[in-house]
Task: structure prediction
Amino acid sequence: MDIKTLEKIRNDTFKSVGNRETHSTLEGMSFDRQVLVCGSTGCSSENSQKIRARFAELVKERGLDRIHVGQTGCFGLCAAGPVVVVYPDGTFYSHVKLEDVDEIVESHLVNNVEVQRLLYVDADGKTKPFNEIESYCRQLRHALRNCGVIDPEIIDEYIARDGYFALYKALTQMTRDEVVDVVTASGLRGRGGAGFLTGRKWKFTKDAQGEKKYVCCNADEGDPGAFMDRSVLEGDPHCVIEAMTIAAYAVGADQGYVYVRAEYPIAVQRLGIAIEQARSYGLLGKNIFGTDFNFDLEIRLGAGAFVCGEETALMTSIEGHRGEPRPRPPFPAEKGLFGKPTLLNNVETYANVAQIILHGAESYNTIGTERSKGTKVFALGGKINNTGLVEIPMGTTLKEIIYDIGGGIPNGKKFKAAQTGGPSGGCIPASYQDISIDYESLASIGSMMGSGGLIVLDEDNCMVDIAKFYLQFTVDESCGKCTPCRIGTRRLYEMLCKVTEGKATLEDLDKMEQLCYYIKDNSLCGLGQSAPNPVLSTLKYFREEYIAHVVEHRCPAGVCKALLKYEIDPTKCKGCTLCARNCPAQAISGTVREPHVIDADKCLKCGICASKCRFGAIRKV
Amino acid sequence: MKGSTLPFDGTPEQETKLRQKLNELKSTPGALMPAMQYAQELYGYLPYEVQCIIAEELDVTLSEVYGVATFYSQFSLYPKGKYKIGICLGTACYVNGSQNVYDKLQQLLGITSGECTDDRLFSLDATRCVGCCGMAPVMTVNDDVYGRIKPEDVEAILAKYRERG
Result:
């Protein structure tokens, strides 16, 4: 591969991808219309692959050779999936079913009439082009710039969007120090959670002594409810390959590993295709761009262990052992994979690198807050209307993310808290919704940026139950190497169980808090050190909810089953017998047209009666 | 260490394939996990007999193989059912009620996570986030994905697969 060929590919392919934006020009373009179908996990699990195949089949059948049908990575609005976007109209079809495809082709592609009933309806009740949808206008898609635009399985489309030009620039026009300096000056910090300055990590590895060095990518996204890294790998795998190659040049490595979750089959497959394509173009391998720089990449599959997201555990796992962490120092930059100096960054961190190299540090460090630069991708989930992927400049407030971008809480419920950082993070109560999302602000209130999972909780979620949920996760995932984590988290979990069963005392709450600090201070790795965060932050902001469980034996949100009781309001009950007939435990008795009663001893608290009752007569107390 | 009590039913063809692959992997640094992943794909799980072959070919101790097999949740010492049911207990699904669906599944199948029904028709796994949080709560049966499900939907879904046999 040389620069002339790369430029030629870019210019040629631009003709077919250049008009993938709303109201774009058609002049000199190969296609009049682009039908893009999301091919990421969320939409794929609702049949988007078949939808795309049907589009392609119909377009071919009808000889519409000025229309291109392609697949892309995640558009972000997973709740609206499967998603189909038609350019240059910018038409945004949501919840498309296989049987809708014929109608879209006939009506829209042939007769130029949009299919009204499938159009995405925005928060204000209007239908509008893709780029004008409220939740998109507020975003700044930097790491996700190619997701939803290019076909991740076609390298030329990546090149058409300036792909591999950053690698060319780094290899031929920059020294290794200059590359490190630009990354440092950009202010980019590790997006995996801890937020360590990326450029500094590169410098440490570059300065480490050793002939053999490695570059690794952490794609073991184990945080439940987070799917940023998966979306990048599915939507734009080449940006990770390019960045790793640049990193390898900077630190002096010739071999790289991407450690990716086996639970992400689409991401693994696309990354595999991308690596093959990069090799065939000579963008991986020997003498890249005619220089004496060699680099190649290998995929290693994780096997489902959360602790392997911790850097030393990840390397132990690549080496083929139980993924147990080891004490630091020595840091991976000195002694990492196979005992050699190793650079390890997360997927999203790498996704920012090529743009920084290409457009300079200022293009990045002018976005964000004073100490948190650039953008951050979040996976919005839980009780929120627009479940999906968003990218925002650092410093955006939580309120903007939840209401303006996320579309607020479904069913008119009240926003209670947001959980960031998963099992390592904490809860941000609704009273802090004006907080700026950046590393420092989140840490100051006892939460953390984490890798980017953002779970929204409403009034129906019990905070003690949520803390218990995360603890159960860490108990399961503790690798067992160090005692504070292995035994401490289990004891903490048991104490939380006591609270949710109404058996705890106020003294137990204090003991829990002490144990939390003990685990934090004494655990070997990040997993244990951060495991108590969900408990500490809920104790801090929702102590009254713990107290309600302990003192009043009551779960205010009505979640903790041991503390729940169902009752029938005799003034509302019409005696229709529906509840009694549906009760799996035969706990409801009564005669027709007379108020019924629930036998509390037999009741399983499954709630089926309440969901069946048409008169709202059954209530949780 | 034997894990499953069900008899091992591996074929000589499977063994030949496995040994061949292990031979290729021998020189790769950190080959144990890729080797075990391949073996699990081949047999569906990692019975004692297969662990022995891996240990022998890669020249590691059996305890090392067993240690790795039990460390990672992806590796199973038990066979899987013809229909592998996964219920997501990731956060997004959990806050939307997936625990109730999981309870229902356990009740109907009489097995818990990691186990397989005696007729080897169904196996059940409580999984971590499967990634389609927009459809929470999510249940998967082999490659079929069921989104936004409620406990009362479960019976009908299982019946569909029982009918297929």
